[in-house]
Amino acid sequence: MNRIYLSVVIPAYNEVNNLKRGVLNSVYEYLSSCDYKWEVLVVDDGSSDETAEMVESFAKTHKDFRLMREPHRGKGGTVIAGMLEAKGDLILFADMDQSTPIDQVEKLIAEINKGADIAIGSRKGRPGQPIVRKIMAYGWMVLRTLILRLPYKDTQCGFKLFRREVARKIFKKMKIFNDKILGHGGASVTAAFDLEILYIARKTGYKVSEVPVEWYEYGERRAVNPIKDSYEGLRDLLKVRWNAIKGEYE
Question: Quick one: what percent of the chain has pLDDT higher than 90?
Answer without folding.
Answer: 61
